[in-house]
Records
---
Amino acid sequence: MSDETNPFESLQEQIDDAAAHLDVDDGVIERLKNPERVLETNLTVELDDGSLETVRAYRSQFNGDRGPYKGGIRYHPGVTRDEVKALSGWMVYKCATVDIPYGGGKGGISIDPTQYSEAELERITRAFATELRPLIGEDRDIPAPDVNTGQREMNWIKDTYETLENTTAPGVITGKAIDSGGSAGRVEATGRSTMLAAREVFDWIGEQVEGASVAVQGYGNAGWIAADLLDDVGATVVAVSDSGGGIHDPRGLDPVDVKEHKNETGSVVGYGDAEELTNEELLTLDVDLLVPAALENAIDAELAEAVQAEVVVEAANGPLTPGADDVLAERDVWVVPDILANAGGVTVSYFEWVQNRQRFSWTEERVNEELERVITDAFDGLVDAYETHDLRNLRTAAYVVAVQRVIDAAEQAGTWP
Ligand code: NAD
């Protein structure tokens, strides 16, 4: 795995790449490449043994031209200011790609959550929510889950915010448990859009996802649900991995069984009689579809030369370095970019927020139907931009569509003061 590429520089390159196809002022592009504001703060919390520890936390509000800032909160030792800035920018262009009325934000705490008890994590989360209170709000900035956070953390943040504000504001955060104002279908949404994106791209290139062999890197929320739903539509998941390593069975793995094994043992490794393989071996396996669903920079230019999949659908944010993108474009490997493929998460977060504002719950069937419409319409929009502008890949197409939408909103608002 290459960790030398700065994800924020990758984001800026992606925007420049799109801007080359648009009629836009350099001054505007400079603004679209940088966050509006970044909170960097220290959280001092008491550990269970009575000692104090200080951890670093961030929230980047990248752009609010199309609506309130929106984006997840990540707990990982690799969280840095630049990573959070990049992730917040990707949120802006993701929301614009699927045309939902949000800007982009992202937050993170630089910790390894496995090193803390649940009570310690609750104190860290509530300390962060207290720092975030002046920045977030139902119409201002709406966090959500990301790597190593989920319903539990979202519920703590909602409760802290509502207690401090003395109000009821379920729309201040999404990805909540159903009883705390969450939406049906939110847990599955990122994996579902990954599956829908795979179906659309195979269809577009005149092939079928049914019967395709699939390798999935990362077996968390995005990866395991994508594997399960791809299996449901008739693909064969032959390899999966997590931070502990990978497993491979050319006859096909049962995604639900593998998940149960991971829940019991902490890793996919050791499942049944599947052979073990490294993450690098998984990424270069001879499969029809590769789904990177772990972290940024999983595939660099060198590894991209060895990728054998015909199609890559990015469930993770930023799994390909710009160098890898170039190599795969040259090698005619189809890549569905993260800002479309994993946009199901933020799309159903948007549906959750709409339901919170309406004080009315939708059925899971309605959520999934609306999600399918959003993803398939957005995919058609990418293909249209790709063909109209004769672009080098679908990522540039997505940025051309998304950057233009942000520019349009900014122009309509005007420059003030
Ligand atoms: P998660 O914490 O649920 O899962 C992450 C998985 O990646 C775990 O299985 C972990 O073991 C694995 N992993 C970590 N390092 C790895 C490595 N080096 N090799 C192989 N596997 C590794 O996180 P998630 O929510 O599934 O997020 C995964 C990616 O999807 C991230 O890039 C995230 O930003 C993106 N994403 C998530 C959502 C969402 O709704 N959860 C939405 C959009 C995008």
---
Amino acid sequence: MNTEYFVIDREHPDPLILSRAADILRRGGVVAFPTETVYGLGANGLDEQAVAAIYQAKGRPADNPLILHIAHVRDVEKLAREIPPCAKLLMDTYWPGPLTIILKRTNAVPDCTTAGLDTVAIRLPASRIARELIQLAGVPVAAPSANTSGRPSPTNAADVRADMDGRIDAILDAGPCDIGVESTVVDCTTPVPAILRPGGITLEMLQAALGEVRWEKAAHTAENEAPRAPGMKYTHYAPAAPMILVEGTVAQRQKKILELAEAALTSGKRVGALVSAETASCLSTAVVTAVYGSQADLKAIGARLYTALRYFDNHHVDLIFAEGIEEKGLGRAIMNRMRKAAGGQIVKL
Ligand code: TXA
Ligand code: MG
């Protein structure tokens, strides 16, 4: 398949490009497009064949449901048969934005989109391109992150092309995404809303709006827990080389990563490090280093994490030592993704 490639301005998107992309969606094709979180792989979410093409392009397991992206709050009514007060409140407060809400679905939503679940995930993105594209297509757009299943989500169009060129109909390139980690997934079908995946809207922000929110950290870290967002059980975000995550205080992390890196270098290994700017300055120049930003700026770390993870794909290393960060605010989503990338290989100090 020949993938059409469009460069598009995110502030002033060319209407001709948007209508071309919307045409492709209406005809059942797959288009990668930017959102404020990560690039999405979009198709008509009500068309089973179009949705099947997404699973095919990503190599995604069929039991992992998709998020339906909409352009207006009123579009929820066709997709959800019940909108509880907590969901209404979240929509009013954080939509458009990086928040996905789980609701009971209507019959309009096909089984393949929800992987047979009785619930549906819905998001109204903040990205102007995303919303105008969905509006023009005139259908809810099912869109997982635009990576091959298991790889880090793409936060720029070059990363989308690396995974999807030749596999989908078109790519819209509007430069890097602002947030860089995916949306927060909140289940509003339970008496107390529960965070199924931490993301761009933080626990603190949800608590401010709702008061009570369930956040079971263990469910997002322990390997043996059955996660409630089906996608959370799969290995994700993993670079090609094994990655070992080091967690602890700043001083503990630095000391341990230095020790581990030195020992691995001495034994003749090619060593990678995924670290903060502060820790990078202590490391030997023999270490292949990707810096995700300064510890003081969680927002910048979120925006750069996946690009830094993908860096190691082109710089062959035998193993990677990664530095954890403080688990507050956006730090929860960042640590959740780093733990998954490490596939449970964690040194806790
Ligand atoms: O920021 C984002 O959410 C991006 C952009 C493109 O919008 N999309 C994204 O989609 O991250 P994806 O497919 O990579 O992740 C969707 C997550 C998965 O963990 C999936 O299992 C969960 O949402 N999910 C979808 N439908 C669900 C449902 N009905 N119940 C529980 N979890 C659901
Ligand atoms: Mg994904």
---
Amino acid sequence: MKHDTRYVNVKNAPLDFDISSAVVYPNFVTEEEGKSLINESAKRLKRRRFEDGHWDSVITGYREVELSTPNEHELNQDTHKDVPQFAKAIHKTRKQLADNHFNKSNNNHIQWLPCHAIDLSAKGVLKAHVDSVKFSGEIVAGISLLSDAVMRLRLSSDEWDSDDTKDDTNSDSSMNSSNTNEEYVDLYLPQNSLYVLTGMSRYSYTHELLPTGSTFELSRSGGEGDDDDTEIEVIRGRRLSIIFRDAKKGKDNSS
Ligand code: OGA
Ligand code: MN
């Protein structure tokens, strides 16, 4: 499975941006695998209500649920045929992440947190944030379902982070995150794709979803010549994402 560099636009990125820290695999799951993840999530989300805030309203208009799966040990038994398809898709994803986005030396010791399914309504918003460094480890990855989207990464700094509070709406300070920070990286996330954030993209950059109607510049040849670029208008409707995180190392688990 190959990732596609055309899906990560670094034209406006800082010079020292590490392109290996943000990758997109288009069509990572098959239609069928995607459907199994959608169905399983729908089942578990049924009794959840849409919420309007959490983490200082980083996210609004969403529902969220854990997608626990049978563990590796059970999976390796002969009961293989009983493993539901959504769980196979999750294990396939974890294997891809373990084999390609962790140091070879410790990729046998990854402690995965349960996946989260996030159902973001068409009007829902996911604002710039860095995932908890207290609970979550070195990787943040997600499968996009039901809708295409554009994710933007921007350099995280204390100034910009604290900007996210409500009282700066009427401050006329020129230090406004979205206006002064002109450096960013965009990820095009079509349905059934997998994105992976590690290293600087996970720890030093915020991630957010752009509003519907945003454009993404897809370079057709994967290289030279802006003439070959196609602008894609990305309509984001209701989105379902399956989020993968590993546990933060230390404390309880040795090494
Ligand atoms: C999150 C997040 C992105 C997505 O829940 O922390 O960044 O793809 N989600 O849903
Ligand atoms: Mn996040």
---
Amino acid sequence: MKNEVLDAFSTAHGDSRGARVFFAPGRVNLIGEHTDYNGGHVFPCALTIGTYAAVRLRDDKEINFYSKNFPEKGVINRELNETEKDETKDFSNYPFGVLYMLRQAGYKIDRGFDVAFFGDIPYCSGLSSSASVEVLTGYFLKVLFNLDITNKELALIGQKCENEFIGVNCGIMDQFIIANGKEGYATYLDTSTLEFSYIPVDLKDNKLVISCSNKKRGLKDSKYNERRKECEEAVADLQDINFLGDLTPDEFETQKGRIKNDINRRRAKHAVYENYRTIKACEALRNDNLLEFGKLMNESHVSLRDDYEVTGIELDTLVSEALKQKGVLGSRMTGAGFGGCTVSIVKDEFVDEFIKAVGDKYKEVVGYAADFYVVSIGGGPCEIM
Ligand code: GLA
């Protein structure tokens, strides 16, 4: 991948002399979905697949963006002191938004640069290709401009870019795990305090299989922001809490009558119970109880399907077919939903059969093919020497 991104750099910017190469991972969330903007827990891990960037500083204030994933967009030129999102400048809004937020926060970035990106995360798949580009950009700017900034702060800058520059009201999960991933571990994060711990993921003779629905969606035009608003309305009705994640399921059951609208009550129910499931799932993994972990994953999907309503025929088919296969411990949608991917824990010896059977049925029901990836848990951002 290093050579490929350097080749892309040469194609776009003439030659690659002096260009440095950086990487940031994609992520998969094992459990704890739509809890991160509700002050709850999440349990994601970084992947070994992700985004690469080759970068070289310039002596002027121009920035030239290129992506090998979107060669048809050509080289997108911007000026260091632009201040607004520009729809005509396409994907460059993500890295440019990070640069803008860093400068707004007072970090000194006073030269332009040429950059080429190349990612091996399926685009728009719910494995966080955009957060990967955001954290990657923050990370190479930190290194190239000697910025005194922690990876946790880089995650917050990435989220600010997404919220205020791009216009998606996402939580902190994606940027946080991408900035702080650790090989072989999942990160148990309390999104109300940003305290976290690493839990080893020992799946024994099982593999993590990602099934990608190939239903493309961007969060900006999905109902993501609407879900967030529904949860905020529920919090307002409940009055004396800051977040839905403050409630245990029992507390929720006694107070839920205060939520005026039935839809908001169901959204809130998901957020409260999903947070509880995430706490339980983390305990289960700590105790090596993979069966319990898988059961909680399955319950998570049902709640996302019935109460949160973010799945759809594509993700539901992938999960229901997965659960019919031999050797499957658990399966659920992962990420925001509305398309994107599912994650399943599948016994080694049945992985091929799983891919064939789920893939065939998916094509029959949905009309186009799904893609499958057997993934490994990787670390956070780095420079590739
Ligand atoms: C997207 C967002 C995250 C999180 C998930 C759902 O990935 O970027 O902040 O809300 O959806 O869990």
